[in-house]
Amino acid sequence: MMKILMLGWELPPHNSGGLGVACYNLAKALSGQGINIDFVIPFKFEFERFNNVNVLAATNININETLKSGAYESLNIDDKVFYSGNNHLSIRDVQKEYAEYVDKYLANNHPDVVHAHDWLTYEAGMMAKQKYHIPLIAHVHATEFDRAGMQNGNPLIHEIEYEGLMMADRIIAVSETTKRIIHEKYKIPLSKIEVVYNSLDESYNEKYEFSDQTYHYIEQLKERGYTIIATVGRLTIQKGLSHLLRAVKNVIDRNPKTVLLLAGDGEERNRLIQLSADLGISKNIIFTGFIRGKKLRDIYSISDIFIMSSVSEPFGLTALEAAHHGNALILSRQSGVSEIIWSALKYNYWDEQKLADGIIALIDYPVLQTTLKYNAKEEYRRITWNKIAQKCINIYNGLSQGQR
Amino acid sequence: MRAICLYLHIHQPTRYRQYSAFDISNNSNYYVDEYGGRQSNERIFKKVAEKSYFPMLRLLEKNMKQFPEFKVSLSITGTWIEQAEKWAPELIEQIKRMVKTGHVEILGETYYHSLSFFYNLEEFEEQVEMHRRIIKDTFGVMPKVFRNTELAYNDDLAKWADNKGYSGILAEGWGKILGWRSPNYIYKPEGCSQIKLLLKNYRLSDDIAFRFSNHGWSEWPLTTEKYIKWINMECLRGNLINLFMDFETFGEHQWKDTGIFSFMDKFIHDWLSEYDNKFLTVSEACKISEPVGEISVPDILTWADTERDLSAWDSNSMQKSAMSDLYRIRNNILDTQDKELIRDWRYLTTSDHAYSMCTKYWNDGDVHAYFSAYASPYESFIYFENILKDLDYRLHHKNKSPY
C-alpha cells in the first residue's frame, strides 16, 4: 500500500479557512482509494481517525492558539505569539518544532511521498527531501502574492515559498490562475506544475434545512422586494471589496432595493465601513462578521446573487458553496473557480462598471438569474473529490517511478 | 448526366457591442464597437474578407472563365451587402460581374437573416421584400429560388413560397424526414402545386464544411479522387448532388493552410473533366426532372447541430424571452415610421444574436462558444435586453433626439 506523509497546518473543525477543508477532503478521498496517510498538524487535539488517515500532532500547543494565526496572514506573522506551557513561541518557532517532529518521524517511517500544503510546511518538506531523499510534492493553495493582494508581501515567506517550489519534485496548483502566478513570479517551469481543482466540502451533501429565523431582517427585506447580494471571505485587500462597494453604489443609484451582505472579518473592516459611509450606501450594506457552519449556509440560502470580487483568488471554494445553495454567481476572472464554472457572469476585478452591469441585469432580468442558478448547479457537481484524489495518485505514481 | 448543385451562403450579422445598462437612455449606439473590440463588425468583416471572401471569389471567378460549365448559387444577406459596401465594395463589384455571366444565381431570403417566419409572418414578408429589392438594385436580378435562414423549413414555409411563385426551395436532406429515400432527386413539398424541393446532401456537404481539416477523421486527408469516388457512389441513388454550405467554409472555417482552396480548385477541374458531369445553379437543378415524390416536414427542420431543429436559437428561457420581448414591440416600432429606429430594431431580428445566447453544449467548449462574439450566452442576453430597453425609451421619447 502506498504511504503518503501529508504536511498540513489545520483540519476542520479547527480551521480558519478553506485550506483545512481542502486538506481534509483530499486526505479522506485518497485514503478511500487505498492510500495510507499520516497527516501532521502543528497542534494537539484528539482527532478521529478517518478512513486510513492518522492525524499526528507535531507540538503540544493548544489548538485554540494556532487558530489565531497562520495560513492566511501575510506581513505580520512575527507578531503572532503562541503560549505553550510557560514558553512564548512565534510562528517561526512553531514551524521549527514542526520540522523537528517530522525529522523524528522519518527516522522510523518510510513514506513514498511527502505532500506538503502551503509555505508553512515547506521547510519540513524540504528537510524530508534533503535528509531522507523522499520525493516532495508542494501543493499550492495560495501564494504569498495572493495573500498580499498581488502586492509585495512578506520577503521571508517569499523566500520559503520559492525554495520549497524550487526543491519540490512536482507542484500541485489549485487552478490555472495559480499555476500562472507560480510560473511568472517564481519562474518555475510550467511542466513541473499540475493543476488539480478543489471541490465542495462533502458535508454539503448532508441534510441541511434553511431556517428563516436566523436573519429575520433580511428575510423581511426580501419580502419587500429587495435583492440580496452576498460575498463571503476575509475582509482583506486580496478580496477586492472596495471595487465591489463602488459597483454596488452604482447599482443602488438605479435600484435602491439592493442589499449587500459582507460575511467575514479582517483588517480592512473599518476602512470598508468608512467607504460605504462615504459612498452614502451604509444602510444597504450589512457586515455580518465572521460566521461559519449553519449560519454561513443560511447566508447563502437567503441570498440571490453571490459575488467573488477577488483581486487574486487561487481557487474560491465559497463560490461553489453559494452555487450549491442556488445563488447566481458573478466571479472575477482572477479567481480559479471562474475557470471551471461557465454559467456565471465574469469580469475583471477592477471593472466596476461591468460588475454593476452584471448585478443590474440579474435584478432586471429574472430569467437570467434563474438560468444561471440552474446551470451553475449542474456544473459544480462535475468535479468530485474522488476524481481529485485519482489525479493526485497519478502524480504520486509518476513520481515514484521517475525518482527511483 | 450527373450534376452538382453548389450553393454557398454569404452572411455577416450586425453584432451589437457590450451595451451597458448605463448606456440606456444616454447613448443609442448599439452596433458600432471600437475597431479593436470583440464586436467590431468592421474589423471582423475585413478579417473574413481577407481570409475568405476575396480568395474564394477569385477562385470561383477564375474557374468560371476556365470552365463555361462551372456554376454556383449564392445567398447574400442584406446585412452582408451593407457591410461589404462600406468596407470592401470590390467584393460587390466582383459578384456583380459574375452574376452578369449568368453562371451565378442569387437566392431569395430575409434581408436580416432572421427567423421571423416563425415569429411574425408580416415581418418576414417585409424582410423578404427588402431583400428582393436590394438584390435587384445591387445585382440586377430577381431571386427565383428561396432559402430560409439556417435552412429552417417546414410545410407552411413551402406553401408560402409556392404561393409567392418561387420555383424552388431549399432544405436539409435529413435522414429522419427522408427515411429510405435519397436526397439526390427532386421532390415536391406536400400540398404544393409548382414549387420543387432541393435537399442538401449533408454527408458530402459536411465532409467539406466540417470534417475537411479534422485530423481525427478516419478519412483525413480528403483528396479530390476520394471525394469524387464518393460522389459517384452517391449517384447510384439519383443524379443531383446538392452541396450546400457557408461561403466562409473556404478560408474562415477551414483555413487556407488546410488546403481547402486547392482542394476546391482541383475538384471543379476533376469533376468537369469526366464526360457528362455538370454543375447546375439552383434554378437549373429544379428543372432537371419532375419530382420523384412528395415530402412532408410538419416540424421545423434546419441545418444546425445534430438535432437539425431550432433549438440552437429558441430553446432556453433567455432566448425565448428575448424573442418574445423583441417581437412584442414590433408594431409600436413600425408605427413611428422612424427609419433609424426601425432599422435598429430589425438588426436585432438577425438569428445570430439568439444563437449567441445558446447554452446547449456551450459549457463543453464546443463550436457555439468558439464562434461567439460574446464572452458568454448570458452576456449576449444582457446586451440584447439592454438595447431593447433603450429602444423602448426612444419609443416614448420620440420628440427628443436620442443621439
Could you explain how this protein is built, in words?
The complex is a heterodimer of chains A (404) and B (403). Chain A has 404 residues and is α/β, with parallel strands linked by helices. Chain A has two domains: 217 residues, Glycogen Phosphorylase B (Rossmann fold, 3-Layer(aba) Sandwich); 173 residues, Rossmann fold. Chain A is built from 15 helices and 15 strands. In chain A, the strands form three sheets. A seven-stranded parallel sheet of chain A has the order 3-2-1-6-7-8-9, sandwiched between helices. In chain A, strands 12-11-10-13-14-15 form a six-stranded parallel sheet, sandwiched between helices. A two-stranded antiparallel sheet of chain A has the order 4-5. In chain A, strand 4 and strand 5 form a beta hairpin. Chain A starts with a strand and ends with a helix. The mean pLDDT of chain A is 90. Chain B is of the alpha/beta class. Chain B has two domains: 294 residues, 7-stranded beta/alpha barrel, CATH 3.20.110.20; 77 residues, no CATH class. Chain B has 16 helices and ten strands. In chain B, strands 1, 2, 3, 8 and 9 form a five-stranded parallel sheet that branches. Chain B has a three-stranded parallel sheet with strand order 4-5-7. In chain B, strands 6-10 form a two-stranded parallel ribbon. In chain B, helix 2 crosses helix 3. Chain B is globular, with a radius of gyration of 21 Å. Chain B starts with a strand and ends in a 7-residue tail after the last helix. The mean pLDDT of chain B is 95. The chains are: A alpha/beta (404), B alpha/beta (403). The interface between A and B is medium-sized, with 23 and 19 residues.
